[in-house]
Design goal:
The chain folds into 2 domains: 213 residues, TIM Barrel (Alpha-Beta Barrel), CATH 3.20.20; 203 residues, Hypothetical protein af1432 (Orthogonal Bundle), CATH 1.10.3210.10. With 435 residues, the protein is an alpha/beta fold. Helix 10 packs antiparallel against helix 11, helix 11 packs across helix 13 and helix 20 runs antiparallel to helix 21. 52% of the residues lie in helices and 10% in strands. The termini are far apart. It contains 22 helices and 8 strands. Helix 9 links the parallel strand 7 and strand 8.
């Protein structure tokens, strides 16, 4: 049985705090005590985001250096969810959280909201009677359970009977084993999740043999279709990107491009009528609207709106990744002495998934765009000084905080500032997608 069970009042208070998070953009507590969290999206069969696996670390070292590993996990999860807030981390989806044996048995899990959190039992947990009984108690309380990195052993029969998800690592299993697990152990109420799916081909395989959910970087990899040409909407969006990346803006040409696509005109007016501007006077022309935006906001708005228009048939998470990267690089520019290149870095982040949005090689989709030379080379995979920024954000996305902080230190960015920028970029990306 679970020991040290929490009281109803303590449990309700903790769950509410976890869901809501602290006030403001990034609480001061996060600056004083950096909170190390990475996240990976989990998609359903329609490629909509179902939830996120939350990757907690007790320090930048990427492992729990605390004398008591369970206590380190408890502190990392509590501080992460209470300070940053579950809504900021997973939106309306579920959060998948790794649970070691000790936390499974000591009542900690009851502090987490059962309707928002999936408890991931690590593959290292021995499924003995005590563990199985604890899982049954949690199930009775409404919690969902996932078996992580599942490789069948007869000792897991009892857990398989009550689990809600089975996660299968596509890196360590072969095709036959992936298929056999679904075929042998599928039952009503048990969902199979393919993790570490790194290509559209692997995603298609998992989809075909019956997996329900998918996790990995497959959605960031272009599925190149030979002979594919851009549609009219995509061509217009690429024209808009080309215009706003010119050294000197030509408002007349931009107006012409926007007018060619009614949806762009509508989005421009909606943006200007948002809380960002709170207009009191009527707008009489697209030119007036463009001029009212001003040069720098226009470049950003047009770039963002072109990207989201091209990605309308792609997973929304792909757009979220793009905008998170764009705002991350833009905000960090001042810290690394590149304040005069904020827009260049914004574009580098935003266009980093353009090949996946258009299912075409990067060299073909950015070849004609008038981007800064080093930005274009970096996007094409050529070694430049901007590669360090790409590596920095990649480590943040993967929860590899030791490597991330190491690069940040070389760039003379304090780790608390790195964490602040990372979380704020996620928040801003979500806000931009709502406009």
């Amino acid at each position: 049985m679970l020991s040290n069970s929490t009281s109803g009042i303590e449990k309700q208070t903790s769950q509410q705090a976890i869901a809501e998070g602290g006030p403001g953009d990034i609480p001061d507590l996060a600056k004083a005590n950096p909170i190390y969290i990475g996240r990976q999206p989990i998609f359903d069969r329609q490629r909509n985001v179902y939830g996120y696996e939350l990757l907690f670390r007790s320090s930048k070292a990427n492992f729990y250096s605390h004398e008591d590993p369970a206590q380190a996990t408890r502190e990392a999860v509590n501080s992460g969810l209470n300070v940053v807030g579950l809504d900021r981390l997973v939106g309306g989806g579920l959060g998948f959280v790794n649970i070691p044996r000790t936390l499974l048995l000591d009542g900690f899990c009851e502090l987490l909201p059962a309707n928002r959190i999936v408890l991931e039992l690590l593959e290292s947990i021995e499924p003995d009677q005590e563990v199985v009984e604890a899982c049954r108690v949690l199930k009775d309380l409404g919690y969902q359970l996932a078996l992580d990195d599942f490789v069948f052993d007869k000792s897991y029969y009892s857990l398989l009977e009550i689990a809600d998800y089975v996660k299968v690592d596509f890196k360590i299993t072969n095709k036959a084993e992936r298929h056999r697990l679904v075929k042998t152990y599928a039952r009503p109420g048990l969902k199979f999740l393919a993790e570490k799916v790194e290509s559209p081909k692997e995603c298609e395989e998992a989809y075909r043999i019956g997996y329900d959910y998918f996790q990995g970087y497959f959605f960031q990899v272009p599925e190149v279709v030979e002979g594919r040409t851009l549609g009219e909407n995509e061509q217009n969006c690429m024209l808009l990107l080309a215009e706003v990346n010119q050294p000197k803006l030509d408002f007349g040409r931009i107006e012409m491009v926007v007018k060619r696509d009614p949806s762009l005109s509508m989005k421009l007016l909606r943006y200007l009528n948002s809380a960002v501007f709170s207009l009191r006077n009527e707008l009489h022309s697209i030119r007036q609207a463009l001029t009212m935006l001003g040069e720098r906001p226009l470049r950003k708005w047009a770039s963002m709106i072109a990207l989201t228009s091209m990605g309308s048939n792609k997973p929304r998470e792909l757009l979220r990744v793009s905008l998170t990267r764009a705002t991350f690089f833009e905000m960090l520019a001042m810290d690394i002495g590149m304040g005069d290149r904020q827009f260049d870095l914004f574009m580098m982040g935003m266009l980093s998934v353009l090949d996946a949005l258009l299912d075409s090689p990067m060299e073909s989709v950015i070849g004609d765009l008038p981007l800064a030379g080093d930005v274009k080379l970096t996007l094409l995979g050529v070694e430049t000084e901007l590669n360090r920024l790409q590596e920095l954000l990649q480590h943040c996305e993967q929860g590899s905080w030791g490597e991330a902080v190491g690069i940040a230190t070389q760039l003379e960015v304090h780790e608390s500032r790195l964490i602040e920028v990372y979380y704020k970029s996620m928040k801003l990306a979500d806000e931009m997608l709502k406009v």
